[in-house]
Amino acid sequence: MSDIEKKLRRLEMERVEKDRLKRIMDKDLVETVEQVFDRMTLLALYELVNDRVIEVMHGVVSQGKEARVYWAEDPQGKDLAVKIYYTATAEFKKGMLKYIEGDPRFRRVRRSTRHLIYLWCSKEFRNLKTAYEAGVKVPKPIRSNKNILVMEFISSSMERGKPAPLIKDAPPEDPDKALDIILNYIYVLYNKAELVHADLSEYNIMNRDEELYIIDWGSAVRIEHPHADEFLLRDIKNVTRFFSKLGVQTPDPVKVYEWVIEGS
Ligand SMILES: Nc1ncnc2c1ncn2[C@@H]1O[C@H](COP(=O)(O)OP(=O)(O)OP(=O)(O)O)[C@@H](O)[C@H]1O
Ligand SMILES: [Mg+2]
Q1: What is the pLDDT of residues 99-121, one digit of tens each?
Q2: Ligand 2 centre and the CA of 185: distance in Å?
Q3: I want to staple 179 with a disulfide (CB 3.0 to 4.6 A). Which of 67, 168, 209, 243 is the partner?
């Protein structure tokens, strides 16, 4: 193929892709998505559309340092949360390695930033699935593809397409009971799912009408991880610190830690 033919073909492909984007997104969103994400990410998104996982993308609900979360809909009209990781952040890579190295599941993996991010995303998906199956309340995982994670949308009861608030902004009405529930989740997670969340705090717990959902599972590690116990104690301390500020007589974090690791 000549260079000109190649160029024409590429332009044609870009036009086709742009049309596809327009079909699943509104105009403003197409522009922001194109600016923020690379072609591989857009292709991964089309695959999810072709596989009928996603029907339409609505707006961004959160723009973090590492990922954006979108409100989307499936072909049946059910709300979805689509978390898309940025693929080019060196800082993120440094922070992430700590959770991946030492985990037997990731002994043999490619170390390019892009592949690490794909790995991170699939790890978040697997962690969600394990936690979900163990009965911990989390958004139901639906699919992961490259740097895109699709899950159930935990919406506010006030407005469709708006996430339920985090407990830092909407503290539980019965904080004693809420603390009990969270500590039990930590226990079940460790003893049944054999996971430690490792980034648990009031920033990663949503409150939907007094039902608490734990989100943001990328950092979670298996209990064999060399730092699992350190992460576990940190999670417990974060949680008890938050609830003691709400006036709860919280137990000693070390006691809770011992209760968790000793099992039933
Ligand atoms: N399943 C979901 N349903 C509804 N909203 C969600 C869902 N998952 C995440 N969100 C929204 O996106 C925000 C960020 O999600 P998450 O904590 O998983 O990402 P993050 O990488 O930690 O982002 P940040 O850097 O902003 O903390 C949440 O605080 C919540 O508002
Ligand atoms: Mg978070």
Answers
A1: 777 777 776 656 678 888 999 99
A2: 18
A3: 243
